[in-house]
Amino acid sequence: MLSRKNLEILVAAQKRLYCTFPELPSFEQRWDFETDGVIQALLTRLGDNDPYFHPRYAGHMSGYVCDVAVMSYFLAMQFNPNNHSYDGGRATTKMEVECLDSMARMLDWNHYQGHLTSGGTIGNLEALWIHREMGANTVICSKGAHFTHKRAANILDLKYLEVDVTKDGSLCSIALSGLLAALEATDVPVVVCTLGTTLNGAIDPLDEIFSLKAEHDFKVHVDAAYGGYFYLIRARLAGRNRKAFDFLPAADSIVIDPHKHGLQGFGCGALLLRGVSESTSQAIYTHDSPYTYFDRRGISIGEKTLECSRPGAAAAALWATMQCLPLEEEGEFSRVLLSCHTAAVKMSELLFAVDDVRLIVREPALDIVVFYIECADISAATRQLYEQLKASGFYVAMADCDISSETGVFREVSCIRLTLMKKEHLAMVDELADQIIRLSKCIADEYRSQYQAL
Predict the structure, then answer these.
(1) N6-(pyridoxal phosphate)lysine occurs at which residues (predicted)?
(2) Judging by beta carbons within 10 Å of its beta carbon (0-12, 13-18, 19+), is residue 21 exposed, middle or buried?
(3) pTM greater than 0.85 (yes/no)
């Protein structure tokens, strides 16, 4: 939520904004309705949310939007630039190009094509569409991949195949090897590798996937919507995960979502493509548009995007954020990512030491921790813990997992899911862990008493 200090800066900036075009007659919108009552009603209705912006919220992948992004979006939105054509948003088009250039430099890519999207769903769809247009007809994903890939394959009329996952939720390279060997001669695959699954942040073994290319010919698309920025701190990750990130620059296409760990509001994703020639790209994206692209002094990004109208304000917000927090391995932005990872590792260590708590994965790959209470009714205990944590001022999420507990093997059992993606989470890990441990013990004791009573 915008700090009071930055609110004052924003008010001063708004006053400057009024003077942007001094050669034009003064203009302010005039309407016959009063806004105050509606805004008050809006504020009341916004209260019907969880506090996603607050460090006490550690549920879904909902980080806060950093102040500079909020301020920049608000200011740029009033121009309402459209980054489809250079005519429609010159300033924000240049900002978008600078943002993508920075992301490409992070990956050591000297030559690339790319642009912002509305999020991972569209970015992944567009990547698979590009691969289809270049000859691919089969999509291979792990069972832990986001469901958007199956939807995209259906939309694009591509064959869709799934690969089993390992115990930590990452793609099993042995199973992938067997599947590749069994493909039909007419199958032209693109393998989707996830760096940061939605369930628990698992990292597919990208290094092992690339080793299979010596025997099998396929393209590699990396869905790094959640985990892409962790490339900056790959040296601080566990060995197998570091190896996976080391191979990220070798991917043919990559999706990264600034609206996750990039501190942006939802509606800001990014797609980067490598190895697509200018002529091929031109042939894929070619279209007739006699009513736009008239200003040829700059790039019209929309000439090579699946989406047409895209908010220039999103580019402005991301650009301003990256001015303050550049993508540097030793910079403040990387330290934020490291603090999130450290928070998850610490939380896992604290919970692992508790008799009644079971972790789905012992060591978090990124910053997500999933666990359950070992008892006669795990799902009911999860719901009870969820509500009790909420009542005590901590907001978490639930997720359905397949587990092997002391009482048997169960499918789609409800577990608690913590996403520790705010830099402030590290400072509150002990407090949250204490609450979880205390409440979990009480809930487990309650179920033991019920069992003994029988």
Answers:
(1) 260
(2) exposed
(3) yes
